Amino acid sequence: GEVTCVVGQTGSGKSDFLNVIAGVKVPSSGFVDVKGMKVHEYHDLTNRHVSLCPQKQLLMESLSVEDHLRMCCMIHGASYHKAKTQATFLLQMFGLSSMRRHNHKGLTISETKKLLVAMALSKSPSILLLDNPVDQLDPEASFQFWKLLQELKPERSII
């Protein structure tokens, strides 16, 4: 695995670029190839390999931290029991176990970012797309976040 950073000024298209790779947006020209398949021709197949952690929060107020993870696992095909086991693993991996029953509004910015990445990892993608992952984090939290990404690197490519 490897970590690749996309750098550019505000409004330069970094988010659009990640959305094209994820198959959320159609490119204006050319194509994106994932595992030998064109994303927009084989979206159902390529979607299994790619997971996008968007810049904006997509969290539901009525769900706990654990519920968000369990729901994501089930959306990606896990049974309830498997989803519960996988959610527990992700909570431990990201140091969120003590917050498992908390509503996301009680989380710090750093904890929220971790939850969003854990949700993106719920389908075990080989390519993880992170849109501005350290935005709004203080230097120490940013350092810890990059350290965590290094631990995830051997199993996947991170952009």
From TrEMBL:
<protein>
    <submittedName>
        <fullName>ATP-binding cassette sub-family A member 8-A</fullName>
    </submittedName>
</protein>
<dbReference type="InterPro" id="IPR027417">
    <property type="entry name" value="P-loop_NTPase"/>
</dbReference>
<dbReference type="InterPro" id="IPR003439">
    <property type="entry name" value="ABC_transporter-like_ATP-bd"/>
</dbReference>
<dbReference type="InterPro" id="IPR015854">
    <property type="entry name" value="ABC_transpr_LolD-like"/>
</dbReference>
<dbReference type="GO" id="GO:0022857">
    <property type="term" value="F:transmembrane transporter activity"/>
</dbReference>
<keyword id="KW-0067">ATP-binding</keyword>
<dbReference type="GO" id="GO:0005886">
    <property type="term" value="C:plasma membrane"/>
</dbReference>
<dbReference type="GO" id="GO:0016887">
    <property type="term" value="F:ATP hydrolysis activity"/>
</dbReference>
<keyword id="KW-0547">Nucleotide-binding</keyword>
<dbReference type="GO" id="GO:0005524">
    <property type="term" value="F:ATP binding"/>
</dbReference>
<dbReference type="Pfam" id="PF00005">
    <property type="entry name" value="ABC_tran"/>
</dbReference>
<feature type="domain" description="ABC transporter">
    <location>
        <begin position="1"/>
        <end position="134"/>
    </location>
</feature>
